[in-house]
Amino acid sequence: MPVQFKLLSILIKQHAELNLIGADTNAEAFLTKHRSGELEIDLLFLDIEMPGISGIDLAKLLLPNVKVIFVTGHRDFALDAFDLHAVDYLLKPIHPERFAKAIEKVVALLGDKDRRTELQPENQFLVVKGSGKASWIKLAFDKIISLEADSNYTTIYYEDTKIMIYGTLGSMEQKLDFPPFMRIHKSHIVNLDHVQKGLRGEKVILSNQREVPIGKTFVTRLKEYLGRI
Q1: What backbone phi and psi angles, to 5 degrees, belong to 214?
Q2: Which residues contact 99 (CB under 8 A, 6 or more apart)?
Q3: 109 C-beta neighbours (distance < 10 Å), count
Q4: Does the N-terminal peptide bond of residue 96 adopt cis geometry, omega within 30 degrees of 0?
Q5: CA–CA gap between residue 69 and residue 227 (Å, rounded)
Q6: What does DSSP say about strands 67-72 and 43-46: parallel, antiparallel, or unpaired?
Q7: Both ends of the chain: CA-CA distance in Å?
Q8: pTM
Q9: Phi, psi dihedrals of residue 140, rounded to the nearest 5°
């Protein structure tokens, strides 16, 4: 086992909430097992430089919901890591205190995921006033992609459609849990589970391919949540 694996393994084993199931430099073999479902993981530690493929490119091929922590000697790829929603970006040599903070982020994220999974069915929906003949509409939280302010109205982007309802974005924000919902602009709330890419800290691209701007006052909070250093 390479020295860098041994050092990282020691840090991992110091955290009871982590279970080390493997270490490898063969990205192709790992991807084959991972994408076939043979190897199920919640968290992956990645270097930037690896044989055959970069850590950044490998991260793009992971199945959804796998958390990534980059461990590298390169400072220049932190922004690329943020674009990929990396939980953290650790520079070598890794300090135990810094590693512990990264693990705290992972545990919090996975805990939020488990909490949302365990919600009772009646709490998995947002009920809003309808228009026309519909007196109310029930919307599944996980299918809400984003919300956009329009004066005293709010447009909800839901799956492949959009719904305009009466009510300010602020009033809607009070009904939404963080995470997964986060206000990233005075006029926009996004479902972080539907954020697919960030554009240099200025915009995010959602699962419906809409580009949503990030307000200057919201950038820091968003980057901190997504794990950028």
Answers
A1: -105, 120
A2: 11, 90
A3: 21
A4: no
A5: 9
A6: parallel
A7: 29
A8: 0.52
A9: -70, 130
Identify the band that residue 108 occupies on the pLDDT scale cut at 50, 70 and 90.
confident
Residue with tokens 């005075």: 186
How far apart CA 200 and CA 173 sit, in angstroms, is: 25
What CA–CA distances, in Å, run from 168 to 134, 188, 190?
19, 11, 15
State how far the Cα of 41 lies from the Cα of 37, in Å rounded to an integer. Answer: 9
Please give, one letter per residue, the 3-state secondary structure of the chain. Answer: CCHHHHHHHHHHHCCCCCCCCCCCCCHHHHHHHHHHCCCCCCEEEECCCCCCCCHHHHHCCCCCCCEEEEEECCCCCHHHHHHCCCCEEEECCCCHHHHHHHHHHHHHHHHHHHHHHCCCHHHCEEEEECCCCCCEEEEEHHHEEEEEEECCEEEEEECCEEEEEECCHHHHHCCCCCCCEEEEECCEEEEHHHEEEEECCCEEEECCCCEEECCHHHHHHHHHHHCCC
For residues 67 and 106, is the Cβ–Cβ distance under 8 A? yes
What pLDDT shows up at residue 225? 76
Residue 37 burial (CB count, 10 A) = 8
- The residue-averaged pLDDT of 68-92 equals 87
Report how far residue 126's alpha carbon sits from residue 144's, in angstroms, rounded to the nearest whole number.
Answer: 9
- In the chain, % of residues over pLDDT 70: 89
CA-closest candidate to residue 140, choices 154, 126, 150, 129: 126
What pLDDT score was predicted for residue 52?
A: 86
Is the pLDDT at 229 greater than 60? The verdict is no
The C-alpha atoms of residue 24 and residue 47 are separated, in whole angstroms, by: 11
Peptide bond into 179 cis (omega under 30): yes
Tokens of 18: 């982590």
